[in-house]
Amino acid sequence: MTARQIIIKSDWSELRLKDRIRPGLRVLFVGINPGVRSAITGHHFAGYSNRFWKL
Fold first, then answer.
1. Using one digit for the tens of pLDDT, what is the confidence trace for 31-43?
2. Distance between CA atoms of 1 and 17, rounded to whole angstroms?
3. Is residue 26 part of a domain?
4. Listed residue (34, 37, 33, 35) closest to 5, CA to CA
5. Residue 46 in contact with residue 35, Cβ under 8 Å?
6. Which domain holds residue 23?
7. CB of 17 within 8 A of CB of 34?
């Protein structure tokens, strides 16, 4: 699935992102659920209006 494909709302529950927890981890950001754009692109906090990356 690519970011350019249109996803029907009923399919949103099937979108997932992999956990990124590894040994030696020093910081862990915890989010409730990924946004649809994040799940489509496969990158956490990928929404264009998300302020996470501006910190």
1. 777 777 887 887 7
2. 13
3. yes
4. 37
5. yes
6. 1-49
7. yes
